[in-house]
Write a structure and sequence with these properties.
Order of helices and strands: HHHHH
Number of domains: 1
Organism: Pontibacter chinhatensis
Number of strands: 0
Distance between the termini: 8 Å
Protein name: Inner membrane protein YgaP-like transmembrane domain-containing protein
Structural class: mainly alpha
InterPro entries: YgaP-like_TM
Shape: elongated
Number of helices: 5
Radius of gyration: 14 Å
């Protein structure tokens, strides 16, 4: 799996996932909280299947060149 999620996008995904989990916990919505795991997982792995399917690569050239996936 080659990196296709950049650093800024990674941080945004993790924060969005945490927000979804928090909102789901507040409103007692388990599906919403579970949906928050998806952006956290894709952010931590720095690979997103949707980005791959669309051909989008948010990793900069330097990130790939210096071994940061």
């Amino acid at each position: 799996m080659e990196c296709n999620v950049g650093i800024v996008e990674q941080k945004a995904r993790v924060l969005a996932g945490l927000a979804l989990i928090g909102i789901g916990a507040y409103y007692d919505s388990k599906p919403l909280a579970a949906a928050g795991l998806i952006p956290i997982l894709t952010g931590m792995l720095r690979w997103c299947p949707l980005n791959a399917a669309l051909g989008y690569n948010g990793c900069g050239h330097e990130e790939r060149q210096h071994g940061q996936y």
